[in-house]
Design a protein that fits this description.
Layout lengths: L20 E4 L7 E4 L5 H4 L6 E6 L3 E9 L4 E10 L6 H4 L4 H20 L4 E6 L1 H5 L3 H12 L4 E2 L2 H12 L9 E7 L4 E7 L11 E7 L3 H8 L6 H21 L10 E5 L1 H11 L6 H4 L3 E3 H13 L2 H6 L11 H14 L4 E5 L3 H13 L10
Parallel strand pairs: 3-6, 6-7, 8-11, 11-13
Antiparallel strand pairs: 1-2, 1-6, 3-4, 4-5, 8-9, 9-10, 12-13
């Protein structure tokens, strides 16, 4: 019989950080989860433990299980499934029963993987869908009761800082500033990363952030995602552009240099990379860290916009589950590019899960602790 999960709970401990949990289990008996401020024994004696990060978003349910190394961490298991938890949320304000059922099935897989891998420390977060839905708290209670996973609904600032922690290492170290963004299903985070060589080591590089209450799912539900005309695409882009205005004003006086660039994480930008590379099937190794020039981004977006819905669904880097969402993502990207023109875009196939793992390992004193705090 598989170990039964107990309670994972997260209590606020400051910006971008939450209490995490330890998982103690003995072979042959049920495992229990309990909140703890203390790192697991393996972390305290320097050996490290087995860590898990679960990110439940509007569109995806993702899990990483990893062990710390001197350079960072080594992923020993992973899971990702499109669940569309926020399907219809922008129209009804509630999570649908069908979406809840799909998500519970994915979370069962995550629970079982954590049990199989002997996870000693975990953080399980939920983002915009659970933040916004009227029945979000009830859904979280259902997950706790049925699966023993205590989802932590993180606020937008925490989400932005975790995204920066997971992706920021890909920023050009010679650039004085970088605009980083994470295009999600129900929200999109945009962050100004600055670098000052005179700042003390460990100083935060997050100079400004904004969480837009829009993403590929909500935008596609509002403007349409199957057959997207030029007029519809322009309307989506203009809508996002207006939503970006407060952030644009906030960073108006921030310095840029010749190495200024964009740094993006999301299914949108990884799809653009896959299309640019003409990949026969998606390959993270070819995509994560890829640099694209302005003209290359233009060309890939033009190719996507020229495809029919059927052609997008047949593309191995898109698939039928995302064929109605990718153009909404392109509209968000185009609005960002219009406000922050840059000659280079770096693609990241990493994000919140990596940020969660980095924070836990840093707090436990394992892995590469000398990295700057984001």
């Amino acid at each position: 019989m598989s170990p039964r999960a107990g309670s994972w709970s997260g209590a606020s401990q400051g910006i971008g950080l939450s209490q995490v949990s330890t998982w103690s289990s003995e072979p042959g008996v049920q495992a229990s989860f309990s909140s703890s401020d203390r790192p697991p024994a393996g972390a305290r004696n320097g050996r490290g433990g087995t860590y898990a990060a679960l990110d439940l978003g509007t569109n995806n349910c993702r899990l990483l299980v990893a062990r710390p190394t001197a350079e960072g961490f080594r992923v020993i298991d992973a899971f990702s499934r499109i669940v569309r938890l926020g399907e219809g949320l922008s129209l009804t304000g509630r999570l649908s029963e069908a979406a809840i059922t799909r998500t519970l099935e994915a979370l069962k897989v995550c629970r079982d993987k954590m049990a199989t891998r002997g996870v000693t420390r975990a953080r399980t977060i939920a983002t915009e869908a659970c933040r916004s839905a009227a029945n979000g708290p009830a859904f979280v209670a259902t997950v706790r009761e049925q699966l023993g996973i205590d989802l932590e609904i993180v606020d937008r600032e925490t989400e932005a800082h975790l995204a920066a922690a997971g992706v920021g290492d890909l920023a050009d170290k010679e650039a004085r500033s970088t605009v980083m963004f994470d295009i999600g299903g129900g929200s999109s985070e945009i962050i100004w990363l600055g670098f000052d060589p005179r700042a003390p080591r460990g100083a935060s590089r997050v100079k400004a952030w904004e969480s837009l209450r829009l993403g590929v799912v909500s935008l596609a539900e509002t403007f349409g995602g199957v057959d997207v005309s030029d007029e519809s695409f322009a309307s989506m882009t203009a809508y996002v552009s207006d939503a970006l205005a407060p952030f644009v004003a906030k960073v108006a006086n921030e310095a840029r240099c010749s190495r200024f660039h964009l740094l993006g994480t999301s299914g949108t930008v990884t799809t653009i990379a896959g299309v640019h590379l003409n990949l026969p099937r998606y390959d993270r190794r070819a995509v994560d860290g890829l640099w694209l020039g302005r003209a290359e981004v233009d060309e890939a977006i033009a190719r996507l916009r020229a495809m029919s819905y059927a052609e997008r669904a047949a593309n191995a880097c898109i698939g039928h589950e995302r064929a109605d969402l990718v153009l909404a993502g392109c509209a968000i990207l185009e609005a960002i590019r219009a406000h922050f023109p840059a000659e280079r875009l770096r693609i990241a196939d990493r994000g919140l899960r990596e940020g969660i793992l980095s924070h836990m390992m840093r707090d436990d004193g394992v892995g590469p602790h000398r990295r700057s705090r984001w």
